[in-house]
Structures are given as C-alpha cells and as structure tokens.
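Encode chain A's predicted structure.
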Amino acid sequence: MLAQLPAQRLTLLFGSYAQKRYLPAGRRANVPEIMRAWAALGPDFFPLPHPSWRSAGWMQRNPWFTTDVLPVLKSRVAALLSLRVESR
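Encoded structure for chain A:
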C-alpha cells in the first residue's frame, strides 16, 4: 500500500509499536532515544509520543519536543498540504 502513495508523504509514527515496526533503529532503541533522534530520520518520518494521558507528563519533562519538533512538524504538514492544493 505504501508504494501506491505519492512520493511526497509524511509518516507519523505514534508510540513504540509504530516506531519499532517502521524505523530500522526502532528495534533496538527506546522511545526517548528515538524521539531525540527525530531530525536524523529525514523529512518523511516523525516519531511522536503515543497520544494518551501519559504524554502530557512526558512532554512536560521534555520541553525540547514542543520547542524543537512541533514547529518543524507543523511546517512540514503545511508544506505538504500546499503541494496537494497546488496539484489539483
């Protein structure tokens, strides 16, 4: 199915199961290590914490996620959405 998607895409990897499945380093790294290495994964993959009530505590203990990762993710999503609109 992934082969059928457009070349310009963004894969959001929520939580450890998705990260371990789709990232080569995910099989041997824990979620905090993967999250810290987000920039090295390239523009197509974004590891994210699992969207649960526990994430609020994790984000408070890791403020770099909000200041460093989320602005880049928002920018990437906006760029991809503008590509979709322009291609129609």
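The helical segments are 15-22, 31-36, 54-61, 63-87.
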